[in-house]
Every structure is written in structure tokens, then in C-alpha cells.
Request: fold
Amino acid sequence: MVNWIAIAAINLAIAVALGAFGAHGLKNMVSTQQLDWWHTATLYLLVHALGLLMVGILIRLNYATQTTAWLLQIGVIIFAGSLYAMTLGAPRWFGAITPIGGVIMIAGWLWLAVTAFRIGNSTI
Reply:
């Protein structure tokens, strides 16, 4: 079984480090739009790392499945990763994969809802 709590903690540490790098290291090196991409990526990484932390706890309590965690992790890697890559010089067409990550993250949250409804209905 994957330790999603540990992975969430690593994601949180990465989000803080990349946020600091964006605020201090990139400020004078990239355009305003690129800095906005970096901030958006960091926000989504941070929020979804916190969500993954919660999901990891729910998995241990048998209220969620690993499917939710995998969808959130893969989605945030694609979403934030593509924005980070564009900020650092990847071609703009790279942004075409950003929404794929967003859709995968949405699927993760919806899968959590489905799982919660199933578990809630089975305990009645």
C-alpha cells in the first residue's frame, strides 16, 4: 500500500520550496505572465497536497480508496508540472496539457464523492 500521507507531506514541502523560489528566485528573471503561471501551479500543488493528506487519512480509515489519491497526484503533476515547465521556458503549446491535469484532479475529487456515497450507504 502506498503511504499517501508521506507523499502528501513531500508535496507540501515541494510546494513551499517552489513558492519561495518563485517569489525570490524568479521575480526578476521571467515575465509577469510566467510568474502568474508559477503562482497558479504552486497554489494548486499546495491545495491538492493538503487534499491528498486528507485523502491519505481517509484511506487509512477505510473511507476512501487509493484511486482518489492516484488521480489527485497524477493530476497535480500534469497540471502544475506543465505550468512550471512553461515558466522555465518550455514551448507555450505545453499549456495544452494543463487542462488534462485539471480534469484528472476533478475526477479525483468526484471519485472521492462516489466512494463516500457508497460507504455512507453501506453503513445504513
Summary: The helical segments are 4-25, 32-60, 66-87, 98-122. The radius of gyration is 16 Å.
